[in-house]
Amino acid sequence: MSTDLQLPVFSNTTQEDLKGRWGMVIDQDVCTGCQACVAACAMENNVPFVGEDDAGYGRGMHWIRIERFWQGTFPAVKMTPFQPMMCQQCHKAPCEPVCPVFASVHSASEDINVQVYNRCVGTRYCGNNCPYQVRSFNWRDYTDARVRPELTTLQNQLNPDVTVRRRGVMEKCTFCIQRIRHAEDAASSEGREIADGDVVPACAQACPADAIVFGRIDDPNSMVSQKSLASRGYHQLEELGILPRVTYLQGESNVGNG
Amino acid sequence: MSATARALPNIRPQAAEQEDPREHLMLDPKPRGEMNGMVLESMRSTGWRYWLVTLVLGFLVLTCFFYAWYYLIANGLGVAGVNRPAYWAVFLVNTVFWIGISHAGTFISAILRVMKIEGRRPFTRAAELMTTFGLVQAVSSVFMHLGRVWLAYWLIPYPNERGLWPDFHSPLMWDFLAINTYLLCSTMYLFLPLIPDLAMVRDHKTGWQKVAYRILSLGFRGTEGEWKNLHTAMNIFAFAIIPVMFSVHTIVSWDFAMAMRPGWSSSVFGPYFVIGALHSGMAAVAIVLFLVRSTMKNMKYFIRPEHFNLLGKLMLMVSMAWAYFYFNDYLVPWYGGDKWEQILRLFIEKGPIWWLWYVLLICNIVVPWLILWNRKWRSTPWLLALTGVVINIGMWIERYVIIPETLTINRMPFTWRIYIPRVEIFLTIGTVSLFLLLYMMASRLIPLIPVWEVQEGQEAHMLRKVGKAEIPAVSEIG
C-alpha cells in the first residue's frame, strides 16, 4: 500500500549553474602585492585623489585594494597571501535591490553590476549591503578644480572614456566596462565574435606577475575559464550564495578570510 | 511573631479611604469659562525666561541646524564622520530616535483613546504635538544623510522626464512611503481634536487673530451634528492610526533587518524596534509634561501626579517589554554562534567603546526598574522626567550601537574602522533645539491642553455620596 501524497515536483534549475559572461581569476600565489593594479585602476577609471587628510581618515577611493592579514598569535605569526579585493560582480548582487532609485543595477547584456552615477542620490545603502565592502563614496568634490586648484593640471590625465564623478555618489569597479565596449565594437565591426584576450582591464594589464586574468567565463576554452577550474580556486564569501564572478586561486588551504 | 502582629493593622485598606478624590482632575471640576480662561492665560503669559530660552534655542537652531546643514551641503558629506564601513551613522541614529519619539504621541493618544483611559485627557495634545515635531526632525535627519539631497525628490513616484520610477524593492522606498503616510495621518490626527479648541480660542480673540483662528477652526460652532461628525472622524483615525504606527517602525527596522549584515539580519527587529520606539517615546512624553507643567501657567491644575503615575506605569511596562525583546535579539544570535555575530558581540562588549553597551543596559533597564516600581517616586514629576532623560539617552545609545557600531564589523576585516562623529554632533544639537523651539512656539499658538476633552471627562464623572463616603461615579461617554 502506497500513499501518494501528490508532492509538488521541484524543478532542478538552481541559479548556481549560471555562469555569467565576464569573469576574472586572481592568483594569490603569484601576487606580489606591488599595488600596480591599484594605480592602473585609478588612472584608467579617473578614481580621484582624496588628499592627505581624507586618505588618512580612510577615505581612499580605490576600486581595487590589496588586503593582507597576519595569521596566528605573536610570536608565531605569519602573513597571509596578498588578496586583491574589488567588486566581485555578483550575479545576485545584494547592492542592487536596496537602491531606491535604480542607481545600482544589473546589466542584462554583460551580466555585471553597474552603477549609474547620475541616478545616485547617495543613500549609501548599497555600500552597507555589499559584503565585500568594495564600494567607495565621493565624500567631497574630489575632482572639482574650482574647489581644489591643484587639480587644474592633473585634469589633463583624465580618461575621456570614463565619467568624472562629483560629490555624493557611490562608485565601484566596473570590470573596465569602457574597454569591454570598445573591444565589442571592434569585434562587431570586423564581423567576428569577441576573442579571448580582446578585453584586458587596467588591473590585469598592469600586473607584472600576471596574477589577474580576465575574460569570458561562458567560453569553456578561454584562459579565465580554464584557470578558474583549478583545484586551488575558491570564491570569496561563497557561503552567502551571491554568485561572485571572481575566482581566487590559493595553493595552501589557509583561506585567511573565508 | 510580635513584629507580624504589630504590622497587621497597617494592612487595612486605609490608603484608598484617606486619599482625597479631588486629587483627580476628573473629580475636581471647574466651570467651563474659568477653565477656558486658564488655558488662554497659559498661552498669553510670557515672562523674560520664555524669551531668553526662545532666543537661545533660536540661536542654536540658526547655527547648529541651518548653518551646519548648509555647511554640510556645500562641502559634501566629507565634513561628517561617516566613512566606510560605517556608511550610515548618527544621521540615521537621529532619524530612528526621532521616529521613536514621535511614536509615543500617537500611542498614548490613539490607544488610550480607544481604550477610554480617562487619565489621558489632559495630555493627549502634548503627546500628539511631539509626533508631528519629532517627525520633522526625523525627516530632516534623513535629508542630512543623503549624499545629494537636492535630488531627494527622485524618491517620489511621479511621471517624470527620466521615464523611471523608484525601485519598490528597496526597503528605503518602503520607509519613505511609510514615514510620509505617518506624517500625514498624525498631522490630521493632531488637527481633528484641535478644532473645538481652536474655535474656543477664536471666540476669545479679536482682529486679525480672530480671522486666523476662524480659518483654522474651519468654522466650528459646536452644533450637535458637528460634534457627532468630529467624534466619528476621531474614532476612525484613532483606530486606523494604530496599525500605521506599528507598521512605520517595523518598516524602519527593515531598513536594517533586510540587509545582509551580521547584527542586522534579524527577524525580531520589527517588534523590537516598535517597543524601543515606545520606550523612548513614553520617556519623552514624561519630559515634555514635566516641562509644560513647571514652566507654563495654570498647568499644575491640568497635569497632576496621577498623570505621571499613569505614565510611569506605562514606562515600566514598556521597559520590561523592551528588555524582553533585547534579550531575544541577544540570545538567539549568541546561541547560533555565527562567526561574524560572535565577533560583533565581542566588539560591542569588549571593544574600544565597550562602555556604551553597559550605559545602554543601565539607562534602559536598571534605572527605570529601580525608580518606576514605586508609586510615590513615579508620581514625582521631576523624578519621572529625569528617568525619561536617562531612558532617552539609553535609547539613543542603543540606536548608536545598532547603526555605526554594528556596521563597523563586517565580513571584510580589512575595512574595520572605528567611526567618530564630526559635524553630526552639531546637527544633533540642532535637531533637538528645533524640536524644542517648535514646541515652544506651538505652546503660544494652540492650547496645549485639549480643554473640551477635559470638560467632557469632568461632566461624565461625579462624586456620589453613599452613606458618609464619597464614591466616584462615571457615566459612559459615546
Give a description of the structure.
The complex is a heterodimer of chains A (258) and B (478). Chain A has 258 residues and is α+β, with helices and mostly antiparallel strands. Chain A has seven helices and twelve strands. In chain A, the strands form five sheets. Chain A has a four-stranded mixed beta sheet. A two-stranded antiparallel sheet of chain A has the order 2-5. A two-stranded antiparallel sheet of chain A has the order 3-4. Chain A starts with 21 loop residues before the first strand and ends in a 9-residue tail after the last strand. Chain B has helices spanning 2-7, 14-18, 32-44, 48-75, 90-114, 124-145, 171-191, 194-203, 207-216, 224-257, 269-295, 299-302, 305-336, 339-350, 355-372, 375-378, 381-408, 423-445, 451-460; strands at residues 461-466, 469-474. In chain B, strands 1-2 form a two-stranded antiparallel ribbon. In chain B, strand 1 (461-466) and strand 2 form a beta hairpin. The longest helix of chain B is centred in the middle third of the chain and has 34 residues, at 224-257.
